[in-house]
Amino acid sequence: MVHCDYFFSSVDNTIATFEKKEGKAFLQPRKEVRIIGKENGIPLLACTNVQGAVKEVRGNKLLIDLRDLTSAARAREQVFNLPLIIIPDAINLTRRMLEPLHKFHRLAADMMLPTGLRECNSL
Q1: Are 57 and 63 in contact (CB under 8 A)?
Q2: CA 60, 53, 107 angle in degrees (round to 5)?
Q3: pTM reported for the whole predicted model
Q4: What is the DSSP letter of 117?
Q5: Rounded Cα distance, 25 and 97, in Å
Q6: Region 43-48 average pLDDT
Q7: Which of 77, 65, 84, 67 is nearest to 17 (CA)?
Q8: CA 24, CA 46: separation in Å to the nearest integer?
């Protein structure tokens, strides 16, 4: 599940507040998330990001605990000025979850690896 249309609103110590442009936030408290700042020309999973835990949901506002002041400061400088994408960070390692991830990684490898290295990807 990918969550879009959030923008950075404020930060108080380690708690960052995000607002959804339209609608309600559908993340649950204590859910581990990764906040990705989408950079132009860089694959999504290689973009600058920060990890945190959902602390509270208030309508269209999402409060995320970034755990320490260093992470909060780095995120404020590097991540929060970019278009934001929020994804769950704890992966349920069931076959249902792993199969699409495997297909995605295979597709990404086929697109990114030079032709000579693609044979190694056929495992």
Answers
A1: yes
A2: 90
A3: 0.67
A4: G
A5: 23
A6: 84
A7: 65
A8: 28
